[in-house]
């Protein structure tokens, strides 16, 4: 262990670098425990920590005891609090030279969310890390902390208060936050994710918090490479990026809401799930908000708005900023970093995916993740309603990213199953947009992503008439418009289907096309229903109906893990199909009997490992994997790579 007294350590000429922050550090009373190294390019990496140290990896190794045998720290340089990677999963590339990491002890240690354990520091740790007197005498287990925090959170009746309590915890004690989220995933998912995150993005305006990700605005044009260097972590594996133009079904939230945290609400929320549900270590996740302005008048006129106060840049200006970002990311983190596009507006989302799909490891959650989760639900639903996919007829309300993305994946799967060309299988899928049924006669005015769904039919101007005309067996809401599956619509579905499949996908709950209660009531309890945001079980006619959550949160964490563990360099549609099939395979007879077409979220880490294994297997099969040789048991390998939120012992 390289454990040095701060003052003498800084005076030691072996460790040559000293910058302004070092001076600042000298004034901090408690000595420091430091684990340090710099990247091979000699660049001091971590501008946010209080000490920057330049030395070679070898010097640290020499100064370190033999690595302990436990799995967590295997073959890594360890020292004092935290190792040079800062986290512990096998998803790390052991060959890279690490970034600078320095870790404070004493008072700053209690303020560092990555290492803070609160009341769980042991007596030995209190002595070794200058904590004595800074904490009350009790030493509690992480389990007891979880119990206490859950009791605190349950005291709040208002979801936004629970959300804030969770965000506070994340900023205070990251491992406890993830332990809570993992151990109580079903209860806490609606708190840190949809619907509450959407409400938070819209409503919360008064509390200042720490920024939690990178803001890249037009002001940073020409400097994005430098901006990325300001982020404290170097080994990034997943980036979730949004430009805020279509947040959930809520529209343009610009740089979003009115304070720093919420500017990042969606990317931060998604990445929390990458960690909790998919086991990607937190320090490998980078949330990014691209700010090119907003067309939301309310925000533009809001004196507290934190984003660029201008209308959205478009065309060349927009494309150049994104292009600079994409290049800078690849240059900084290499070609195996996964970039997830989230909540871009339709007019950019498809183009960005088409443009960067061939050159980067990119994934659009709203087009591809939603598609994969819905296909999984449909595969499971077939066991209840009978028939093959190709024997069903699909009608979508909403022909944007989610709708056309899902439709395309269904058409691909049908084609795979029947051998018919995709052009043919698409004919079983119909779409209604704001102008009515999409038909060939409307072809000229249609955006390119809607055209494959324009079939021969006379004009139909609204959903009810479309339902009556097409007689779909499956009705899918991807409109972002709440309460659009009216009584008449659901009743019509129930007249010609014994078990109508009704999926109300739009988020958050306020935008859901109908509620679970409405779906069951209006179909006399016969609907197979799932929704993007969760609904509590409902009672109808003396029977309790639970409904599943058709949300991409089932897919992206496992898909991301699979891409990372295989070192994949591109996302392929077959990986999405593999993810769908893996998820559908996790739906048990028991789930189906109670009307659920998704497995419970309580098993999500196991499910993610299975999805990851099948996605990775597909990456190897397609020759897109770079991590060789292929592990023999991919499920076991995926599981062994997952981040654990258990506290580590600081020696
Ligand atoms: O965030 C969610 O809950 C699902 C999603 O991607 C969206 O609605 O845009
Ligand atoms: Mg989304």
Protein described:
- By secondary structure, this protein is of the alpha/beta class.
- Among the domains are: 193-364, Malic enzyme, N-terminal domain (Rossmann fold), CATH 3.40.50.10380; 368-550, NAD(P)-binding Rossmann-like Domain (Rossmann fold).
- Helix content is 40%, strand content 8%.
- The chain has 26 helices and 14 strands.
- The strands form three sheets. It has a seven-stranded mixed sheet with strand order 8-7-6-9-10-11-14, sandwiched between helices.
- Helix 16 (365-385) crosses helix 17.
- The longest helix has 21 residues, at 365-385.
- The protein is globular, with a radius of gyration of 25 Å.
- Mean pLDDT is 84; it is low at 1-101 and 257-262.
- The structure holds oxaloacetate ion and magnesium ion (MG).
- Magnesium ion binds next to helix 16.
